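Input set for joint prediction.
Command: fold jointly, output tokens.
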Amino acid sequence: MSETTDIDMLRYCRSQTGRHIMLLVRSPSEVINPLLFFLLVIILFPLGLGPDREQLSVLAPGILWVVALLANLMICMRLFVDDFEDGSLEQLAMARVPLAIAVLPQLVASWLASGLLLSLVSPLFGLMLGLSMDVTPVLVASLLMGTAIMLLLGAVGSALTVGVQRGGMLLALLVLPLYVPVLIAGTRALNEALYGGDPYVALALLGAGVTGGLILAPLAIAAGLRVSLEL
Amino acid sequence: MWRIVHQFGSPPWVYGFCDRVIPWLLPITVVALLTGRVWGLLFAPTDYKQGDSYRIIYIHVPAAVVALAGYYVMALAGLVSLVWRVKLADTAMRAAAPIGAAYTAIALITGAIWGKPTWGAWWVWDARITSMLILFFLYVGVIALFEAYENKTVAARACAILSLVGTVNIPIISKSVDWWYSLHQPASIKFTGSSAIDASMLYPLLGMIVAFYALFALLMMLNLKQSLTSEYAQSNWLIKRITT
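tokens >
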């Protein structure tokens, strides 16, 4: 058996990322539906809490983050399902590239289509909730990193539940407790920015979460997928 | 020394070990629980601020301490099963999960009962209560994941991975909850921390903690025995042990 070189791996990752992005581009509903969900749930809050702008702007950081978290959960539910059902996940596990690295392209593609997109449109939703424009950079930065961490954690849960019938609710039960630190750090960053504090501590912690997650989560995802594939 | 470690991988040996330890552990647990209970309820002094309501501490704190330790027992068993593929570790992990969840639930319920007279509310979003609640869901997640799989060998491996992920996250979660709490610090809740607990109250508490640990070990062994009985129902060694 010949060794895989780093260049092979890079080439592999690039082509796989392309494949996953192409898959997402060809089924735009998978990309747009989470955004629509995000928008719809945000509309529910003023309807439920009343249109008082003052009150909404106080609650806005929490609302935006909780809804982003739920949208992320929806994306994680679909993450490995298609590849699992058509057997390409099995091929991926057999490939010479380590599974922990082989799953990265899909995560990157999913994050581009979900986390990145969601972070970029979030200022718009912030405006609807009366969030001050000044905190827009903090909102986008915290969501960029927070969605990445949540996707990594969600992918672990998704890898463990992909072989289970009706794994959706189970996935929520498994990963929502793990999302707690992300939610706390994210809303903390926004609240600090809103009330004149220092948002960088929370943002730095989110950044640490992304780097730590990128190192550890793929290992857990690969182990989880092997369990689901019963290899 | 390795012989002892290897013995723990053998179901017949562990079954026999449980059989030998339980007759000792059962009376110790009962005596420790009774002593701690009576001491805590009748002989420990009344708290000058909270009156007698504080006595629920003798259930609440031991349950909380052991609930957290139980998660690490479960995760350690999961690690052993993943790394060395010891089948018995799977069984141990499965035996620990419901007990740990029950301890967590006891800690939460007694916390709520204690909260009503002291804080004036059944539920307060205190940092430690919130951490405990999340711990409860981590336990429930492991149990639910195990139940979801048809193939129980696969289920055990999935649970092992999940409990390890949880172990990495528990310190992060509890730190972040502490941090979150410092932002929302409500002024109404300030009753602990000002003075250290007095020895006359501490000793029964320590006794109860030991008793709760013993109870955990006892329940885990009973659970383990029950799992082994159903798992190895067709095996000769089990049939021989039960019939003789």
